[in-house]
Every structure is written in structure tokens, then in C-alpha cells.
Amino acid sequence: xxxxxxxxxxxxxxxxxxxxxxxxxxxxxxxxxxxxxxxxxxxxxxxxxxxxxxxxxxxxxxxxxxxxxxxxxxxxxxxxxxxxxxxxxxxxxxxxxxxxxxxxxxxxxxxxxxxxxxxxxxxxxxxxxxxxxxxxxxxxxxxxxxxxxxxxxxxxxxxxxxxxxxxxxxxxxxxxxxxxxxxxxxxxxxxxxxxxxxxxxxxxxxxxxxxxxxxxxxxxxxxxxxxxxxxxxxxxxxxxxxxxxxxxxxxxxxxxxxxxxxxxxxxxxxxxxxxxxxxxxxxxxxxxxxxxxxxxxxxxxxxxxxxxxxxxxxxxxxxxxxxxxxxxxxxxxxxxxxxxxxxxxxxxxxxxxxxxxxxxxxxxxxxxxxxxxxxxxxxxxxxxxxxxxxxxxxxxxxxxxxx
Length: 403
Prior knowledge:
Elements: E1 5-9, H1 13-25, E2 29-33, H2 36-43, E3 53-56, H3 67-73, E4 83-86, H4 91-99, E5 105-106, H5 112-129, E6 131-135, H6 141-150, E7 155-161, E8 164-171, E9 174-180, H7 186-193, E10 200-205, H8 218-239, H9 255-274, H10 280-294, E11 304-306, E12 312-314, H11 326-347, H12 356-360, H13 365-371, H14 373-377, H15 381-402
Parallel strand pairs: 1-2, 1-3, 3-4, 4-5
Antiparallel strand pairs: 6-10, 7-8, 7-10, 8-9, 11-12
């Protein structure tokens, strides 16, 4: 018996009863409601009731699907609940659900086994997509925190670096606390972890309940961390001028290696941003479909893979980065991203302008520009400046509302 609580909503008593009995027989606890309004009355005003999944019809005339879906997506706790759409057999309902990023859809007649399997899949997929891990060499702490801020993520991020372990807690994209196991806490812990250039990270996204101990914005923390790092580098360079150095300075990464690293970073920043608006399973399918469509003209895309969390990585057995033409690589990745944002913006107009890629990748803008990513994306300086201004205005509005 799983014991997970499923909230089922349907206006027809017979269907509601059938759905409830099917789920209950599979080991789930079930709470039924005939309307969105009655379901809202059951959960409104209390923080103690939170279902593990929601099965509900949606209204194709309602921009968010229904008041109930809107309510669940309005706060950090509700947004973590997977939603299974009970379609009415009309293809418009399925298309509307997909446009909303609701990719778990059951068509009538509601088969008992399909209802249980779809619910179980939604729950398992939700558990998988909350977890994200990787190498700090592929996504640095600065890039990781910047992505979480851009996408207003909540959760716990654990970093490991040369025997040290650090933890960052975030709520709605804001770093609220941090610590390193050497005793550093709060802002000082963030400044230390921002400089870690090797190791691993594990992010578990979901609601966090610890109190906020850091008031400075995530962007402010990262800017201060980079300022401190630059200052330390200048002091080191002044104390060890080239003429007095015993060892040669470490070589800069080659252009092919830099193109691959920045390309993967840009791809994963883009998918993280998209994940704030759409289900990761939908993003993954779009990425793979576009890659398969483009691979004939851009053969390098055959060496990339997309995992269940919609994160892009280089497949085992791929050619050495040094053997890859960086110009062709940049062109292939830019084309992939351009097609992805075109399709997503068609589904959700106004949410995926190409210039948004410039805003979410500001920390590595210099490298992306010099490598030719922005040129191949069709972005000029005026596009990036316009998006920067819009992002600043949105941030100002958010800060004013928060006050």
C-alpha cells in the first residue's frame, strides 16, 4: 500500500466513484470532490492538507486550465503536486493541457488500469524531476545559482569540492541560508562555494521550511563573490609577477573545449528556464524531436543526449572535444536552441523570446559572444540590452511587491 493521497475531481458522481475505487484498490488514499470550488473549499485556509497528486478535468476556456489548477500553481507547495488531466474526449482539451505543460492526460472512457498507471507515472516522474545532479566542471556554482534564481526555484543544493561539503537553501530563487562544513555560514559560505571549480552538485528542488538568514539577493551575492574572486586574483598576480614565477601559468581552455562547455551550459540554462513554465518531460521530448530532425544537417548533435530531467549532456563514446570543429559545434547548438524556443514560444506566446537566452546567460555572456553563439542565434547587442532592461524592470517590480 503506497498510502499517497490523491485528490480526484469530477462532476459526474458515477465517474468520480469509479475513479476513486480504482485508485483505492491500488493502495492510494483518495479524496473526491464534484467541483473545483468544493475541492478548493476543502484545502483553502489550511496548510495541513496537501495531496500527493491531483486528477481533474480542465476548462479549455480558462487560461490556466481551472481555478483549482491555478490555485495549485500559485504557491511553492502546490506547485510541487503533479496533475493528471481527465480529458473529455475532445482533442482541444488535450492540446490545451499540453500548452499548459500538463502532459499526463487520460482520455475517456477511463480504464481502471490506465488511471492507476498514469497516476503512478505522474508521481514517479515528479520524484525524478525534483532531483538534479552533475559536475561543477560542467555547471559552476555561479551558473547553478543563477539558473535557480532565474527560474524562481526552491530547494536544497549540496556541493562537494575537494573533501568539503557545502549546502545552499533557496526559496523562490532567493538564497535564504548557506553553510560549509568548515564552519563558514550564510554569506561567507556562499562566497566560498562560488569559487569551487571542481567537484559535484546535487539539487533537490521542492519546498523548504528553514528560516531566511540571508537578506541579500542571489544576484547581489554572486556579484560580490565574483568581485572577491577578482580581487584575490589581482593580489595573487601582484605577489607573483610573471618574471618571478617558478611555474608557467595554467593554460587557458582550448577553443573547442570552451565551445563545448559553454554550449552545454547555455543548453541547460535554457531547459531550466523552460522548466519554470512547462513539464520537464515535455521539454525533453521537444529537445529530442528537434535534435533528431536536425541531426542530418548538424551531425554533431548525434553525440548529445537528454536525461529525464531535461538536462543535456555529451554521450559516452563522443569524439574528443579537441577533435570537434568549434564553429560547427556552435552553429549546431544555436540552431537546436533557436528551434526549441521557436516551438515553445508558439505554444506559450511571449514566454520564450530568443533574447531571453541572453538574460539567463549573463554570467558567461563574454564567452558566448566571442564564440559566436549570439550571432548564430540571431541576437544583436540591441536585443540583449532590451532583454536586460526588461529583466531589471521585472526585478524592480518583484522587489517592490516583496516590500
